[in-house]
Automatic annotation (TrEMBL):
Composition-biased stretches (Low complexity): 519-535
Protein name: Sodium-dependent transporter
Any Pfam family: SNF
Coiled-coil blocks: none
Taxonomic source organism: Microbacterium terregens
Amino acid sequence: MTDVQNGKSATPDKPRELWTGQVGFILAAIGSAVGLGNIWRFPGVAYENGGGAFLIPYLVALITAGIPILFLDYAVGHRFRGSAPTAFRRIGGGKRWMESLGWFQVMIAFVIGLYYTAVIAWALSYFVFSFDLRWGDDPAGFLTGEYLQVGDPGFSLQFVPGVLIPLVIVWLAVIVVLALGVAKGLQRVNVVFLPLLVVAFTILVIRALFLDGAAEGLNALFTPDWAALGNPSVWIAAYSQIFFSLSIAFGIMVTYASYRRRRSNLTAPGLVVAFANSSFEILAGIGVFATLGFLAFQQGIEVGELDGLTGVGLSFITFPAIVSQMPGGPIFGVLFFGSLVMAGFTSLISVLQVVSAAVQEKFGMSRRSAAVGVGVVSAILSVLLFATTTGLLALDVADQWANNIGIVASAVLSTVLVIWVLRKGPELRYHLNAVSTFRVGRIWVLLVGVLAPVVLGYMLIQRIITLIVEGYEGLPPWYLGVVGWGTIAFIVVAAIVLPLFRWRPSPDDFTAWPPYPPAGSTAASSSSTREGASS
């Protein structure tokens, strides 16, 4: 039996890590997809883009782009058995330029991990602050003044203890989880945190539904504006939300799928992950807008007149203001910020596993060495950049460029290179159907190869033009150039340089299973099937 068929790595004495089973994989994949964006991005995006009518383009985007690209990531990772650089190098027949695509995704994950950890540290601080409502009567002033101590655009080494301490705690937890591995680390965290997250957030939503003004909040969210469906920007917003929410196109699902056994169903669990993620987003929308309805009721205004309906403002300014005014506010605050911590942490470990796995495979390192090395380097950079008085501004700009340019560019490159340049669509479709119960047709290749790059390419060009012409949040051009465009330059340069390093061991001694094209010797095909099933 070959290493490829029994699921081992290129080194015979080092079997590839595996999820313990399908349930473990599904929980981990859902844990990765359900993150901060589900709670603080979806409700506001839906409200601003047609309310209840937004669910139509949202579902269309999920079915025509989100799920197809999710399946693409699964197929690449599962068939070619590696982290993003390994898998893309193998699908490209050992070509360095395809390995560069993998490293492009890894470096996006690396950058996101640096600042995403800081947001979790904030949520952890606010979890503690909830017990005594420490933000007082001015949550906005408390966040930017007393807590983050926000300074002018630039680079400072003036550390903020209230951010530094929880940030170090989060990084230590991340390193421990990554060092424990796929089954004992990532999977166990998700098995514990994901049910806790669902229970905590469901309690929060139920409580919110009984607040004064909750009905008005829900009406504001779900009242359909059918005219909005004629606005192309609404459809782009739907594709954008689905795309960023599912953890696709930057190495996570490629890496996660590579840890599944050879004979593992891919498409049915993929549907479970996609619809579970969307269900949580809708649940978050109900909870958030029921709560916003209460705040509007207290202030005697309409929900639309409130500030801070998305992002950092919603979570760290608007919600603390609500908690201060509602009965049993501290309990509500603990549930909300506890949910943010759990949702963020399960996503964070998936992001950093992309980096750790790639380093481990490229340089022949042990799991623990790669986890500690990646964790320590990331932690140092994260502390230097985001635990200071200029951390909030750097975080906001880096997030804008890494997400709206980095990830979208990665998706366009992935779909075009895999489907059109390498012509691997039929092979990946065959692979999905060979191991899965839910079969995909030729339309899947068209959705991935035509619709996705067209829509995402339009999004990418539109965003680049907007950032160049209009800038971002009124920040100085030099700052956007260094932090924003500098982030993209760093990702591109790293993606070019890293493939030049020698592999230890080489990933090229590899044969994908099951054989493609399937037409071949019956005996060989039967033997491969038996060996693959035994893994």
